[in-house]
Write a structure and sequence with these properties.
This protein is an alpha+beta fold. Helix content is 43%, strand content 16%. The strands form four sheets. The protein has a three-stranded antiparallel β-sheet. A three-stranded antiparallel β-sheet has the order 4-3-8. Strands 5-6-7 form a three-stranded antiparallel β-sheet, with no helix packed on it.
């Protein structure tokens, strides 16, 4: 079995019609064996987003990427081209950042994202509009040997292979997505959050009143417990006679080291998310402006680059762009240095003749085009 047995057959080069589903999603059979080797290894998105560390990392990845514009360029001349509306605003009914943020979240959580074509250009058959589809709504159709994806179903209905209604697939570069890869750590963090909530509601260990005398009837026990609860609401000091003994069961948060456990899991989740720990406040460090700029570059290279590569290459395929064009993210603003660094760079570029004063002013938005 070769590589193309899994990813499907390549599209014919002489085919005029652009097939929006020409590259099917890879078939990942991890779920069929993982439950046997490692039972209950996955977590749900709801569990993950209930954890502050995951919620913070999710916000950093998705909101940051959604704020970065995408542009087209000519691959031969490297000249920037005004991108089609579908690139930055896939669905004309919704702001582009909303669609892309959801797509990035799907790639981050599930290692795959789906869209559905809403409109195509009549002149070349390329995609003119599409919208995001929740991965839970999409089902893959496999061949008889379960080695190749031959189509998709949306809400149980077979989607067209091309044109309006067909499926656009974005492939993640992760092994299986955070929900599967770090499922146990996410569930452990979820359990620790539940334990913290329990201790917040009941800050003292469970108490037991033990009778040292004769056995009391049920009615007498109920009255004793009600009186104990009422007394604790008015004063913290209690008095017990020789017939009743107070016993405490359970471990208090300090002995349980709940704070330390939550801190450790937060660090583990930061590692699982490929996010520097200080970005999600999982560890306390002293950051200055200069090394914050360096960390932003590190965030791009080690956390955001895989998603950027996945989307750039998918949008550069023939159903979005002509063969001589491609798309890429405009990272200049994201990696923009401070004023002193930019001035030093401009000074060098102007001295060697690479940039004029007017170009520098335009780059810095110092020219009033109104």
């Amino acid at each position: 079995m070769g590589l193309f047995d899994i990813f499907g057959k390549p599209a014919e080069t002489n085919q005029i019609t652009v097939d929006a589903a020409s590259t099917p999603a890879p078939f990942n059979n991890v779920a069929s064996t993982n439950n046997f080797l490692y039972p209950a290894s996955t977590a749900t998105r709801e569990q993950a987003l209930a954890i502050p560390t995951i919620a913070r990392a999710y916000g950093i990845v998705c909101s940051t990427l959604a704020s970065i514009p995408i542009y087209q360029y000519n691959k031969m001349t490297n000249v920037e081209i005004e991108p089609k509306r579908v690139i930055n605003q896939p669905d004309p009914r919704v702001p582009g950042a909303a669609i892309w943020s959801a797509i990035y979240g799907d790639l981050w959580f599930d290692n795959i994202a789906y869209g559905q074509v809403l409109e195509i250009y009549q002149e070349d058959g390329r995609i003119a509009a599409w919208t995001r589809i929740d991965p839970k709504r999409v089902t893959m159709q496999l061949n008889a040997n379960s080695t190749e994806i031959i189509g998709y179903q949306i809400d149980g209905k077979i989607a067209p292979q091309q044109g309006v209604g067909s499926v656009v697939v974005f492939y993640g570069l992760d092994s299986a997505g955070i929900l599967n890869r770090a499922g146990r750590t996410i569930r452990a963090a979820h359990a620790l959050e539940a334990a913290a909530e329990s201790f917040a509601k009941e800050p003292v260990p469970m108490q037991v009143l033990k009778s040292n005398g004769t056995n009391l009837p049920a009615e007498r026990i109920t009255k004793l417990l009600d009186a104990w609860r009422s007394a604790r609401l008015t004063r913290s000091t209690a008095f017990l006679n020789a017939d009743v003994e107070l016993q405490a069961l359970g471990i208090d948060p300090a002995k349980l080291q709940l704070n330390e456990a939550r801190q450790y899991v937060a660090l583990e989740l930061a590692r699982a998310c490929n996010i520097p720990a200080y970005f999600v406040s999982a560890e306390t460090t002293s950051m200055t402006y200069s090394n914050t700029q360096s960390e932003r570059r590190g965030l791009l290279d080690f956390s955001l680059r895989s998603i950027i590569t996945s989307v750039e290459q998918r949008l550069s395929m023939p159903d979005f762009c002509p063969g001589n064009q491609a798309v890429r993210y405009d990272l200049d603003d994201f990696l923009r240095g401070n004023s002193l660094e930019r001035a030093q760079v401009y000074e060098i570029l102007n001295r060697i003749g690479a940039m004029s004063v007017e170009q520098i002013q335009e780059e810095e938005d110092l020219i009033d085009n109104g």
